[in-house]
Amino acid sequence: MNTRIASLSPIPFISPKLAEPRVFDDAVEAVDALIALYERNTGFLIDAFGALAKGAPVAGKYRAFYPQVAIETTSFGHTDSRLSYGHVTAPGVYTTTITRPKLFRRYLIDQLALLMQNHGVPVTVSESSTPIPLHFAFGEGTHVEASVSNALLDIPMRDLFDTPDLNNTDDLIANGEYEALPGEPAPLAPFTAQRIDYSLARLSHYTATGAEHFQNFVLFTNYQFYIDEFASWARGLMAKGGEGYTAFVEPGNIVTHAGCEKPETAGTVRMPQMPAYHLKKDDHCGITLVNIGVGPSNAKTITDHIAVLRPHAWLMVGHCAGLRNSQRLGDYVLAHAYVREDHVLDDDLPVWVPIPALAEVQQALESASRKSPAMKASN
Question: Which of 120, 306, 287 is nearest to 217 (CA)?
């Protein structure tokens, strides 16, 4: 047995002092409390790991917990079934764990404010009982094992810190299959903190860009010339001052700022499986374009991960064959639904459930295409 842990029987848990629950009726204050609690707990894990990596003696298993936010309603009086978000459907206690609150700050403020407004109740910020895995405390792109000393490598990482647990990283809530046990709170969000952290790490791996660069309007394509045209257009915008956009980010997190003709860093990057390009705005309402390659499995994989960012809308941009005799080369075609013959979603969504395109998105695209200079010229 390694002498650094020989005396630890059983191994004690070492954690930050448990934070007292706090009640808020202001969304900004609630999110600030979530940020402070998250940074305190992740900082504890990072500092503990750093000390051990430098040779400090092991005192036990180091553990810190995700923050959580909860609301409790007692009446159906404020429930509006027409709302698609920012409300709960029935009286009860609802809670969700929170990760990366700085990244999701605007989203969290909007959602918590709507919950308070729609139900007339405050929110409670506290510590959850879900440990933060060490790897997720560091964030995406960090190779934890590569930072440890040789002595620490003799001890299994799971003996010292919590590590990602895929058994609890699922889409039961988002798929509508989660059933809370009697007495347990209902879920307040479609994704748990650990599920979000897992996807943020995979996004960095698949797209070679950080999660903070993704925008609220996402385009998917499997044609490189769309990528080339988008990148050329975006670089031109940056050279002209941005025209409302602040930066253009390419794989490898290579950033060209508005007003610049070249990126702030140069170099070649090995293309990832699904490279992403981001034309950014300060409010995240810019455009992200992802080359998903060929195959519906890629499409499902990347959308499963981007979904945790809660984008406003996403679209697949591609080609179509001649569906009607009236169509001409270059016509703009809006799909009405997703054909299920590839069977990719069968395990998550029964084949008898239709998957239509969102009417609001269809109408917005049709309206925008009618106003475009190209469309006016063709008419």
Answer: 287
What value does the mean pLDDT of the chain take?
87
**Which 3 state secondary structure label does DSSP give 72?**
strand
Span of 71-75, 150-154, 330-334, 351-355 with lowest mean pLDDT: 150-154
Query: 160-188 pLDDT, tens per residue?
Result: 899 888 887 888 888 888 888 888 999 99
Structure tokens at 132: 């933060």
Tokens 């981007």 appear where? 306
Burial state string for 207-244 with b = 16 or more CB within 10 A and e = fewer than 16: bbbbbbbbbbbbbbbbeeebbeebbeebbebbeeebee
| Identical topology for domains 13-202 and 209-378 | no
CATH topology of domain 209-378: Rossmann fold (3.40.50)
Query: Given a cut of 70, is residue 10 above it in pLDDT?
Result: no
User: What are the structural domain ranges in the chain?
Assistant: 13-202, 209-378
What pLDDT, in 10s, does the model give residues 209-257? Answer: 999 999 999 999 999 999 999 999 999 999 999 999 999 999 999 999 9
* φ, ψ at 202 (rounded to 5°): -70, -35
Confidence of residue 265 (pLDDT cuts 50, 70, 90): confident
Assigned CATH class of 13-202: alpha beta
Long-range contacts of 72-79 (CB under 8 A, 24+ apart): 72/121, 72/124, 73/119, 73/121, 78/118, 78/119, 78/120, 79/119
How many contiguous H segments (helices) and E segments (strands) does the chain have? 9, 13
